[in-house]
Amino acid sequence: MLPACVLVLLPLSMVVGVEVPKLKMNNGKEMPALALGTYLGFGQDGPVKSENNMLRDAVIHALNVGYRHIDTAAIYETEAEIGEALKMKLDNGELKREDLFITTKLWNTHHKREQVSEALKESLKKLGLDYVDLYLVHWPMGLNEDYTESDTDYMDTWRGMEDVHRLGLAKSIGVSNFNKEQLTRLLREGSIKPSALQIEVHPQIIQKELVGFAESEGIVVMGYSPFGSLVMRFGMLFPGPKPTDPVLVDIAKKYGKTTPQVVLRWLVDRNIVPVPKSVNPKRLEENINIFDFKLTEEDIEKINEYNSNTRYTLPSFWQDHPYYPFEKIENPAANPFVKQE
Ligand SMILES: NC(=O)c1ccc[n+]([C@@H]2O[C@H](COP(=O)([O-])OP(=O)(O)OC[C@H]3O[C@@H](n4cnc5c(N)ncnc54)[C@H](OP(=O)(O)O)[C@@H]3O)[C@@H](O)[C@H]2O)c1
User: Fold this and answer.
1) pLDDT tens across 80-113, in order?
2) What's the start-to-end Cα distance of the chain, in Å?
3) Do residues 114 and 81 make contact, with C-beta atoms less than 8 angstroms apart?
4) Does ligand 1 lie within 6 Å of residue 176's CB atom?
5) Which of 147, 290, 317, 322 is the most buried (most CB within 10 A)?
6) Using alpha carbons only, what angle is made at residue 319 by residues 315 and 320, rounded to the nearest 5 degrees?
7) Is residue 58 a contact partner of residue 279, using CB atoms and an 8 Å limit?
8) What residue ranges do the domains of the chain occupy?
9) CATH superfamily label, 22-334
10) Antiparallel, parallel or unpaired: β 69-71 and 101-106
11) Which pLDDT score, from 0 to 100, does residue 337 have?
C-alpha cells in the first residue's frame, strides 16, 4: 500500500479511452476487436479526398477515445493523412508503436510477386511506419496498370505476401473479398496461413458459412460496411433495416444503447471485428462504446433474420475476371451500386 502522501504521477497527456478487447489470430498475434474504417468513398475523380485535415483529426479523436486499430488501403488514398495523426501521437509520447494495430491493403494493380514489397514499402512511407500489423490482399483479381484484366494468379500474389511477412514489413498477412474456395486454395498451397479475412458483414449479409470456415482455421474475420442499410450508401437509402427498425429498437432499449451500437455488438458477439467508418467525433465515441454489454443468442438470431445476401460492394464490372469472388449477376450494367473500390 502506498502512503497517502505519495502521489502516483501519470503523464498528463496519457491517452486512455475505452479499453477494446483483442482476438487471437492463428499466428499467436492479437488483433483489437474493433477497427476504424477510413474509406471516404469514390467520386467522379477517384477516391474522395479528406479536406481541412478532416481524417487526420478523426483519427486523432479516435485514438483519444480508445481506438487502436485503423483500417486503410492503398486505393483509399488516406494512408498519408493517417500517418500524420499517428506521427503526432507517437512523437509526443502519448502512444507507443506497439499500442497500435495498423491494417492496410495491396491494390489489384500490384499483384505480381515482386510488386508486393514495392507496394507495401510505398504504403509504409505514407504511413510513416516501419511495418504494418496486418497486410491484406484487397481482392483476388489482379489488374494491369490500365485496369485490364491481369492473369496473375493470386497464389503468386500470396507468395509476395509471404515475402513481406518474412522481411518483417507485415507482422500478419491476410486477404479481403476472397471466397471459401479461394481461401481453401491459399490454405492448401501457401506456406503461411492467412491470419485475417476482411469481408462485407452486416444484418443483410451475415456470411454464416464463410465466417464459420474462417473461424475453424483460426482466421479472424473483419466485417466491413457493418451498418448495412442503417446508413446512406452512395448518397442513397437502400431497402433493409433502418435505425428506427422496431426489432433493433427493442434490443437497443433493453441495453440502453443505440441501434447502430446493437449492430456493431452483433458482429463482436459473433467474434467478427467490425470496421465502422466515421469522421464525426460523437459517432466515433458511440461506435466504440459497445464493450459494456452483450447480446443474447436470441438477440443475435433475431438480427440474423434480416439476411438477404445483399452486398453494397459488388464490383460486377469485374465479374468476367477468372478470380471474381462473388456470384455473377445477370445484367452487370444494371448494378445499382455505383463503381467503387
Ligand atoms: N475490404 C474492402 O473491400 C472494403 C470495402 C468497403 C469498406 N471497407 C472498410 O470498411 C470501412 C467501413 O465501411 P463503409 O465505410 O462502407 O460503411 P459503414 O462503416 O457501415 O458506414 C459508414 C457510414 O455510416 C455513418 N456512421 C458511422 N457511425 C454511425 C452511427 N453511429 N450512426 C449513424 N451513422 C453512422 C458514417 O458517417 P460519418 O462519417 O459522418 O459518421 C458513414 O456515412 C471502410 O471505411 C473501409 O475501411 C473495406
Assistant:
1) 999 999 999 999 999 999 999 999 999 999 999 9
2) 56
3) no
4) yes
5) 290
6) 150
7) yes
8) 22-334
9) NADP-dependent oxidoreductase domain (3.20.20.100)
10) parallel
11) 55
